Amino acid sequence: MSEMFPAGERLFHRMKHLLDKLELRYAIDEDNDFQLIITGEDIAPQLRILILREGVMREVLALIVRFEGDLPTWTEEEALRIANHWNTVRRWPRIFWKNGHFHGDFHIDLEADVSQEFLEMNLKHFLGSSLQFALYITGREGDLINRLSKRFLDDFRLN
């Protein structure tokens, strides 16, 4: 059976173990939150991922992405339409427009115990769907999405 863990400070160690297992490079800030920069020749724009522990007891896992870099220029109205369309046809991440950038987020309440496999599955879904949105906003969704998503979920290593 999967090892279970309570919400709170132990989440830091579980997430660190997961990121190491997936061979993802990351930085840790003074609050023990994680930051990943995902970039590569198949990926434009750059994705800035934050993995935060929020809530009174830090029992909510917040996965946040900001899409940066070489992107088309949108009016606020165009950007809101893009985000609204994505949110009506896709589950993850929830997309919004703020300060001239697209952002995405996904939150998991961890007051109840969850398994490491559950965390890994949700992190992979978040990262994969964030990559899909990056391709969507750059008009490269089609076959490249399937190739990148499969590659990522199978054994994708990011810079």
Structure characterization notes:
It contains 4 helices and 8 strands; from the N terminus they run E-H-E-E-E-E-H-E-E-E-H-H. It has 159 residues and is α+β, with helices and mostly antiparallel strands. Strands 2-3-4-5-7-6 form a 6-stranded antiparallel beta sheet. A two-stranded antiparallel sheet has the order 1-8. The radius of gyration is 16 Å and the shape is globular. It starts with a strand and ends with a helix. 25% of the residues are buried.
Strand residue content: 25-35%
CA-CA gap between termini: 33 Å
Instruction: Give the overall pLDDT as a whole number.
Output: 83
Number of spatially distinct domains:
1
Extended strand count: 8
Question: What tags apply to this protein structure?
Answer:
single chain, 159 residues, alpha+beta, Yope Regulator, Chain: A, 4 helices, 30% strand, disordered C terminus
